[in-house]
Design a protein that fits this description.
By secondary structure, this protein is α+β, with helices and mostly antiparallel strands. The chain is built from 6 helices and 10 strands; from the N terminus they run H-E-E-H-H-E-E-E-H-E-E-H-E-E-E-H. It is rod-shaped and about 175 Å long.
Length: 348
């Protein structure tokens, strides 16, 4: 209790200083670890149990624990993490600079309060060495306990390794089954691809055959067109082919001397063409023939005095479909002159 005649501020400082002295002198040495085993807080004098490791600075408990303390701490920390009560180690032999020291170690995992959750506290308490035979018996007992603890720890580690190996074996077996299943799927896909490849090759061969046949037919058609063009150009009859819209489709060379036609006139309407024929009803007669399919034939005089027999007939395809008209112009000038001469002669 703080004396009444001491000022409050001074009383707080005295209490704090006294608490620190009591903790340093009378309280046991202890450390607080985080989840990775690193020391985050030190209470009391821990130099007999911990020492900085050589090399790069490390605050890990396993790197700083002195000889004889490291192995027992491994098992105790694992046990404490799975328990709510502290784990106690008795008569642990620790090699200190002054010699072997027996130490009782308590390991407590914190779950409350929230600020300490996940952390672990290790408390060290020295035990006095017994003299003569009693000391030896206690040392031997402590050594035996330590060996038992180490053996238990090793057994736990071996069991953990065995479980990990079994889990790894199951994972490998599962992965092997998945790989085998994937391999079967790949084989099936490969077989399907091979089948598709054979089908594609067969289709390609068929297409090549069809292409060759089409090319042969195109060659035959080109020769037929050439033959027809030569035939039309060799005859002395002017012929004009019109489509269903009465546009120029084809004509013979003879027709150029009667109707003003050039090669660029292919596709032009009949109404746009200039002709030397005195035949103003030519377009109407062509339309009538296309509509009624009736032949039309008239004798028409040209501007140069020649006479032509103009015949208009439907253009019928091989499949019996009407696809325009054909206009033929036959020069009948000579018969007309002969007929006129005969008319002028007196009757005998």
């Amino acid at each position: 209790m703080t004396p009444t005649n001491v000022p409050p501020a001074l009383a707080d400082n005295l209490q704090t200083a006294a608490d620190q002295v009591l903790l340093q002198v009378f309280a046991p040495a202890a450390v607080v670890l985080n989840g990775d085993g690193d020391i985050v807080y030190i209470s009391g004098r821990t130099g007999k149990y911990l020492e900085p490791a050589a090399g790069k600075a490390s605050w890990n408990i396993f790197a700083m624990a002195r000889e004889g303390l490291r192995a027992p701490l491994v098992g105790a920390l694992k046990q404490a993490a799975a328990r709510s009560e502290p784990v106690h180690l008795h008569h642990v032999e620790v090699a200190t600079p002054a010699g072997v020291q027996l130490v009782d170690v308590s390991v407590q995992a914190f779950h409350e309060p929230a600020v300490l959750r996940g952390m672990t506290m290790i408390v060290f308490r020295d035990r006095a060495l017994a003299r003569t035979g009693g000391r030896r018996r206690k040392a031997k007992g402590a050594g035996a306990e330590r060996q038992v603890a180490e053996l238990r720890q090793y057994q736990e580690e071996v069991e953990a390794l065995r479980e990990e190996a079994w889990s790894s074996r199951e994972e490998l077996q599962s992965a092997n089954e998945e790989l085998q299943f994937t391999n079967e799927e790949l084989q099936s896909t490969n077989e399907e691809l091979m089948t598709s490849k054979e089908e594609m090759q067969s289709m390609n061969e068929e297409l090549q055959t069809i292409n060759a046949e089409l090319q042969s037919k195109l060659d035959d058609l080109a020769r037929a067109q050439s033959d027809m063009q030569n035939v039309l150009n060799s005859i002395e009859i002017a012929i004009l082919f019109l489509d269903q819209n009465l546009n120029v489709r084809r004509y013979t060379a003879r027709a150029e001397t009667i109707i003003n036609l050039r090669e660029r006139d292919i596709g032009r309407p009949l109404s746009d063409l200039n002709t030397s024929l005195r035949y103003p009803d030519l377009l109407d007669d062509a339309r009538a023939t296309l509509r009624t399919l009736a032949f039309s034939e008239k004798q028409i005089l040209a501007d140069d005095g020649r006479w032509f027999s103009v015949r208009i007939m439907p253009y019928r395809r091989l499949d019996n479909v009407i696809d325009g008209v054909v206009i033929t112009l036959v020069d009948i000038t000579a018969p007309k002159k002969l007929e006129a001469a005969l008319r002028q002669q007196p009757n005998r």
